[in-house]
Design goal:
Length: about 100
């Protein structure tokens, strides 16, 4: 899905959708929290079904209970939204992170 706004826009919003190749567990949840910590000026929100989580919280991400085949919507708001959304989607779609 293309970014909804241009890079560098303080109010940029980018959305991605990922079909999980494996259940969302501690390692990718930790990687998402690390990504969120590296981009403090951005907000990363995940939605799986009716559950939402801020990616800054490993426990909140894991509590979503997303399993293999779950569609997870990633919404990033902030100046680096498109790049951060791409990175978050890569973490979620990575077979390696899911298997490690």
């Amino acid at each position: 899905m293309p970014p909804s706004s241009e890079d560098g826009d303080a109010d940029a919003v980018a959305e991605r959708s990922v079909l999980l190749p494996k259940p969302l567990h501690a390692r990718p949840a930790g990687q998402l929290a690390k990504l969120a910590g590296q981009h403090k000026e951005n907000t990363i929100e995940l939605v799986a079904g009716e559950k939402k989580a801020n990616a800054r919280s490993v426990l909140a991400v894991m509590a979503m209970g997303a399993v293999t085949g779950t569609e997870v919507a990633v919404t990033v708001t902030g100046p680096d939204a498109p790049a951060v959304a791409d990175a978050a989607a890569e973490i979620l779609s990575s077979e390696e992170a899911a298997n490690a």
